[in-house]
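Protocol step 4 of 6: record predicted structures for both targets in the notebook before any analysis. Target 1:
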Amino acid sequence: MNQDTNQVRRGFLFLANKEYIKDFHTLSYKSGNAGQFTATLRVMHETEKVEKIIFYAMLEGEGTLLEFSVAGVKKVHHLVNVPRHGEVDFVFTFEDLPPGNHIIYLLTEDYLNPFYIEEECKGHIGFFYFAIQVENAKKKSLANHVELFEYNGHTCQNDKGVKLTLFKDKKMKKLVESVCSGSYYYLAINNPFDFEYDANLNVLVNYELNQLGKIMIPPSSKVVFPIILSEELLRDKQSILFLLIGKPIKEPNEYGFPERIRFISKRLEVFRLY
């Protein structure tokens, strides 16, 4: 039996500058007077080759990625070269955050050449989030651009399989390995927990964020609904990934921080007939 000699072991450590920490134990932070926030993401890595990781961030309730600065360069995506054996510190700064109380999501993903998608686009997803209080910022609060959609789905008994999966058929027998525009697919969201939650469903097309809408997931159930990916969405793109972030509808957990649940699909190739 052939063994995979390039298995990845990776860890993440989030280190915010002291002046921005309100309560480390409850993931509670604050911004500076101008709405800025500086922190470090430390990536610990054990693999047999150098890996390239893409790093991006989201503000809860918004349908776009956040811009942030690394080494004086401000953009929504940053690439990090992670050594074969060791660690790397990634210092980043948010600027002009909108006033108010927010949740920020930090995500890392194995970077794929956008013009070459391997047969297995599973990737390794790193996910971290924290609460931040922004005061005295000049920027106005962002409008909530989330649009509700009618998914006309149905629920069935949950299972122990993958939590966010795309199928070709309603009976969930044929897994999707690639997608094309205009076709019907069935997205299955499995909730193994005994509580319900509100969730935002997003799709990353290449590495561009598109927010599909809100959905409520019942406890201990699987929600299945049809979805069509438009030509406009997939035009000139090579891969997609579904990302669902849920907020449990229950009392705050015993640790006192804002609990969030994330389900991420495998990355799928965009297929074209021409």
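Target 2:
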Amino acid sequence: MDLTLYFPPIRELRVSALASFISGWTQRYSLIAESFALPPVEPDANQSDYFPEGGMPFPWLVFRDSKGHRVGFQNDRFSLYWQFEDGTEYEGFETLKSELLARFNDYAKAVMLAAGEAPRPIRAQCEYSNDFGAVSPLEVATATLLSGDHVIPPADRSIQYAFHITLPTVSEQDVDTVVEVNAATREGQNVMWLDSNAKASREDITATDLLNAAHEQLLQAFVSSSSSKQLDTWGMVR
């Protein structure tokens, strides 16, 4: 499960200004990665917001804790990722959402002190993927009753079969949500991805509203695009 909040890029933010905040986090998390900034989520984003004068873009920083939670951030997004492991039960959306919001609030306070500007979430993404065992992508495609389905030919030879669908945009309470469903057989595993993206049309929409909208539409997509075998095997945990 991957939950991400997006906000307008804070151009003046520098890693050096967050040194104290990052140092404090290393007592709880281990800094496992620093890489070049992830590309803007908005296709028409102003690239100059990511390439400040006289410096490189704010990098993508990732931390990991002992529970398998991975937290990452840069100057336009904040993300919590949790990976299923053998014998580990899914903690549930509400638990992961609460942790994301708590860590994001810590980050927002540090950013405000460092750059004089607080991140204002305008978009949320909820992404879920899992190996669904003996249920093949073909069965998933056959079980899908959604309109506008289309098959995408495999892009590489390791994929035996793949399909991709994009659901019509759902608009509720000034939040527009788009969901994509993908399934493929890759390296001997049947894998399914669901990606829900919620965008606010008003400034007073909260991070919680965005996350809830993204997750609710993802759940509906999971039910609509899953076979009865999948639903029996996975079940549904909110």
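Step 5 preliminary note on target 2. The helical segments are 19-25, 93-115, 137-143, 207-224, 228-234. DSSP finds five helices and ten strands in the chain.
Proceed to step 6 after PI sign-off.
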